[in-house]
Amino acid sequence: MRRVYVGYSTSVLYWLKHGMDAVDRANVVHVTSLSNAAYTLRHVEAAELESHGLETSTARGWPDRTHKGVRVKKPVPDGPAYHLLVPRGVDHNRMEGVDRHVWQSHIPNDSFFKLTQQVYVSTPEFSFLQLAGLLSQQQLILVGYWLCAKYRIREDGLTIPVEPITSVEKLGAYLDDAEGCYGARKARRALAWVVDNARSAQEVNSSMLASLPLRMGGYGFGKPVINARIDARDLDPSTLDREDRQFFEIDLYWPKKRVGLEYDGIDHLYPDQVRKDKRRLNCLLANDIRLLAVMYDQIADEDVRTRTMNQLAKLLGVPNREPEEEARNALAGLLYKNEFSL
Q: What is the DSSP secondary-structure string of 293-306?
């Protein structure tokens, strides 16, 4: 029986929508060969991928694929299409609605989730490795953040809390086993900039903007801890904002500098929340933690964003340096102008 091996952006989109828990992990299997992979439209249609929650993807903003300055014959997928893994030699003909990718490296352990007897989905870790061969470094870092985040955006646009699909630790352990695979080095370099536990897209964007080096369009402040929990048990009780909780949580926090950045959404404009925020800010200041509070326009708007990052640099006590213009524009397009999709 031919198996459909789903991967690349299709598998990432599946995990971002459905999540991955301990039950799913129990169905992760080791596949040593793709020799039985489905590669004809008849095989793919028989698998009924849509009925199992798999969706076609429409890639946007992917870089041109080149090798030593020469355009690769197979174009960057521009969807909508399912992205499948196939053995060498069966990907030369284009198929409507299907993009076939040859995987010639060895297949690391724990690379596929058995969805049905006929459909195998690349694990989040394997999907991250696959995309390393197609995306820019900044795009791959963003995908890493998504996979390690604690939120999901529903179809109606609302954000809901979820358990992370994977983690920086799991991705790192997988890449250790993937040494020598195509894209493994690039994936490892990208993973070095990924941070766990973001609870919103704005936390992801702010973290990347602040932490990535200048050559990648960021401000080079180093990686923060996202949603850092600051234990307040040993602090003066009179400085705490809530008697029922002995800790603070800060969106982005640089522990060595005792500096944080807090993103305030529109709900922070309500009077009751304003009072809570002021009490919280006073508590943190009284305990030698300095916090920069920002709203959407202070990060998304280019002119205001520069001033915000200058203020954060001053709090962190680091030089005020501007990213390279081309890299800065590319990162802003990625994070704030919707120029990239899977």
A: EE-HHHHHSHHHHH
